[in-house]
Amino acid sequence: MSDRFAVLQLDDLPTRRCSCGTTRRGFIAESDGQASVHLLQVQDAVTHHHRIATEYYIVLAGEGEIELDGVRHPARPMSAFLIKPGCRHRAIGDLTVLLVSLPAADDTDEYFDA
Question: Where in the numbering of this chain does the Cupin type-2 domain appear (predicted)?
């Protein structure tokens, strides 16, 4: 591993449960927490928001919707969504999403409505 680049195979990373389904998170340590890349499989997503993180969702496969502040938007392969801090969001449907988080994903920056 170089100090100037990092390489990983997202589908080889271990899965973990998250508020949107299951995810494989990469580059958190390698970026010194500045960013992370996730391979997200949507399943039973719960509406939430972040106070710090900005997220980019890029739909790789499947059909469904991305709900942003209560408004549902169609999602299909190559749909992209910019989700800024404070925007309540969730993914709906059978979707595989490439998610980029700036800064890197941090479970303490995840907030749910009562």
Answer: 45-92
Q: pLDDT tens-digit profile of 40-76?
A: 999 999 999 999 999 999 999 999 999 999 999 999 9
- C-alpha 72: how far from chain center: 17
Q: From start to end of the chain, where are the E strands?
A: 16-18, 21-26, 36-42, 48-49, 54-68, 71-75, 80-83, 89-102, 111-112
Quick one: tokens of 104?
């890197």
Contacts of 9 (CB under 8 A, 6+ apart): none
Taking only Cα atoms into account, the Rg of the chain, rounded to an integer number of angstroms, comes to 14
Q: What's the pLDDT at 111?
A: 97
Q: How confident is the model at residue 114 (pLDDT cuts 50, 70, 90)?
A: low
pTM surpassing 0.85?
yes
- Count of residues for the chain? 114
